[in-house]
Amino acid sequence: MLPLEHLLRVLGGLSVEAEAEDLADALWLAARLPPPAEPSGDGSKMLDDGDPAHLPPPRPENDPAPDPGELRLSGRPPDGPSEPRLDLYLPGAGDRADGTGRASQLRLPAPRALPYPHRLVRSLRPLTRRAPSPDRTQLDEEATVQNIVDTALWLPVLSPAPSRWLDLALVVDDSTSMAVWRETVQEFLSVLVNVGAFRSVQHWTLPTEEVATRGLVLRSPAGPGRDHSPMEIVDTTGRRVVLVVSDCISPAWSDGTLLRLLRTWGGTGPVALVQSLPRRMWERSALDLRAVRLRTPAPGTPNVRQTHTPLLEQGDPAHGMAVPVLEMDPRWLGPWASLVSGESPTWDTVVAIVPERPDTPSADTARLRQDDPADEEIPAQERLERTKARLSPAALRLARHLAVVPLSLPVMRLVQQAVCQDSRPSVLTEVLFTGLVTRVPWAEPSGLPHQDRDTVHGVLFDFRPGIRELLLSEIRRTEALRTLTLVADHVLGELSSGQSPVTFTALFAEEDEAVAVARSEQHFATVTAQVLRHLSNRYETLAQRLDPRATPEEGIAGTSPDGGTEPHDATGAMPVPAPLLDRDAVLAELSRATQPVTGTIGEGSETARIVLVAREGSGTTAVAARYVAEHADSYGHIRWTAAADGTPSFCAPGELEEAVGRAHAAGRPATWLLVVDGARPEDVPAVLPNLPGTLLITSTVDAWPEPFAVHRLPPLRPSTSMGLLRGLVPRLSPPVALRVATRLGHLPLALTMAAGLLSDGLLSDSGATDEAGAALLAALGADPTPGAPPTGPLPDPLPAVCDLVLERVGLRHPEAVPLLDLLAVLGPGPVPLALLRHVLPGDTETTEAAIGTLARSALVQPSPDGALLSVRPAVGRARRRHMDTFRADAARRLARAALVSCVSALAPSSGIGVTDLADAGRRRDRVALTRHLASIGALTDRDPSVRAAVEGQVHFLVACGYPAAARSLAEDALAHWGADDPLGAELAAVVGAEEEPDAAGPAGPSLDDTGRGGP
């Protein structure tokens, strides 16, 4: 590779955009720089006698942000033991009242306010032109020589020296709302000073909130605070540019005072307004904004001499001076610099029109102030809904996380750094100044407000009453806990050693000293108490100690009076979570990946769409089940459904959307989780709830469209798969276990089924495990010779081992074959044992023995209470491949007959209402029948008894509170029966019923297919 190509590749890896001129300048400078000094001694030691200040800063945890579509699965645990945790507390205005604990002030490194300053420098290059200096001269060599020739007098000829063309005055609005932008302004000022385009750069502050008492004055931030006249920065020569940085929401902007000042400055030179708010919020300011084509006749033309024509149909053309409105972004500053320098004489942009006599606020301005959502009379729920309609997705997500912490600027910036990939203050500004948050002063120990407004760290905000509680109800509990510990984790990332006398763990352990330290800052203690109540009811005692003034009834919405959360709304055929091998890293990565993000499919505007992809039998379903079990407390609503073509599901996404909407309207936790097991892209629901949630999909399909984040589950490591196999078959020798595991591709399900063959004596009559292993290897097409090297994996090991197990079970246990046939024709998901008992021949002991045989061979999975039975999808497909049409039809007829008998046995003694069914197990069994009706042909059967059973199931689902599933089942039945069927009229009534909350009868309890009230 050529050296230049290598340099370009290195710069590209560092995300450095270098133009040709930049690269040439860098190479020219590098050739003239001295070589770097060689380090002496051991390079691993600290420089400057171990001074850590000279070490490079550690790489931030989220910089650069990982691609959400990638999942880095590391099989290694973290190196070294975990470090002790340090506590971080907000600084109080005075000393601690109780005098407990020791603390040191620590200034946390904040993210860069201007992410790409070099791009700003590049955008301002048109202003670096030179002009003749009015007061500096230089020797004109050519003119001097020519003068000597002409006059024979050796006299020098001087000419004006070229100098920088313009001066710059940066005037910053010093209102309270601009406090969050102070660091951004400082970085912007550094860019303006270092760009090399201006002869001088002056920095002034404009106290807009003091206009009514002191008039229009300017102050120097570095000076003693003396007032200066705004006329001091007027340059009659026209060689000074004025940039005014403001959010334009101060009253002085709406009464015409500051507009008159802009007109004064714009009469002698270029003036522009740098709007600190993001573009979508400009219309809420007091400015008369217009989209125009701006023309300048010459470089440096004052604003009053520039012309503008409207770009849009906005009525009569605006009369007055046009002031360009800019963002602190190269996309805005670059075209403005080209306009001022004359490089580009026209620019289509947004300007603020300053009339000739800006005396009174416009009608639009008055209307905006009247309709301000920060009005105190607006209820919290209405205020939040109106504000959410204007917030960007990033700002809304940040607001939810900020509800977990006290709102001081350093803490908010740290949370933004971790939660949002965009570190610009515009996202935080949206949260602070759209009606959700109000500013409160620090309190001195005497109770008097702290007056030092120049200290950024002294600014403290708080949510308006009721807003924090509503936002907490929209965030998952694991996210809330992660945000609560974020600041302490950030400190540990910056410090390599050290230990606090009071640990964060000690606070959760309710140690007296830790509680006393936390209570020394009352605002911190109050917020922490609210968040602890949101996390779990087991923190109620600690919450009471932190904030004894609050009662449990004052907790967040969605909690019960005793501080505990309301029962989860959880339905679906979730498998029983089983122990996982070598999947801890996967679960950890999934926990980080399932953060709500902006989506474009369906109506879920903040839905994390995660697809866990692997070969069938790799354990994606088990990983998803474990995720649900571990994170159930983070969601208010959980649904688990198996993807199946045309199979109605009582846990349909429509039901989830209705449940989430009802919970959010009632102020209860509305976060949701939908798991679709074994899905393809076309199986994914098109409509999702429009609230934060997670869509978790397990699939064998690799290709998924945006915005789905595909995470691939790696196969088990050889040592892990050997451990799994030998754990199930202890007497199997390691060499044989390795050869079997390798042949089966280290698939967990295939290994589990192979273990059933080896331990149940299905391959060898001698009982010798290694002999059975050799027989298994031979049956799988591998070399069974002892000591032979492992044979490579089968192309598709799961169907091969399924066929082998089914063959051996059929030969050794023929009593289990009818059960296999019946399970093969049923739909996906659990099957009630009550249905099977109506068709299986023999007594109960024979049935249980057959189920035990299939379970030991890993062909089926019984529920913990033995009331439900699930056949593995690969097993069902393998069995159907070996069933001819006659045998499959016979199994379906048997299943339909069992359906009629089962529905009759599970029917209530009086009425159909759920309250008439005292036995929860009967309710569960009846609901579980729904998913199997289409598979067994119940919807196409003409038998009146079968159709009556289907019609009764529709009404049962309505009574249970599953109207969407009932309508889906009724529509499918009507499609086959026709409207002329005697039962068709009743089904048509169900299909046409309006979706009213009480139209379906009383809603039953939340039950899943396993009979549990939730995972």
TrEMBL record:
InterPro entries to which the protein is assigned, alphabetical: SAV_2336-like_N (IPR047738)
Q: What is the lineage of its organism?
A: Bacteria, Bacillati, Actinomycetota, Actinomycetes, Kitasatosporales
Q: Region entry Disordered: which residue ranges?
A: 34-106, 297-317, 357-385, 544-569, 992-1015
From which organism does this entry originate?
A: Streptomyces pactum
Query: Which NCBIfam families is this protein grouped with?
Result: SAV_2336_NTERM
Give the Pro residues compositional bias ranges.
Answer: 54-67
Q: What is this protein called?
A: Uncharacterized protein
- Classify the source by domain of life: Bacteria
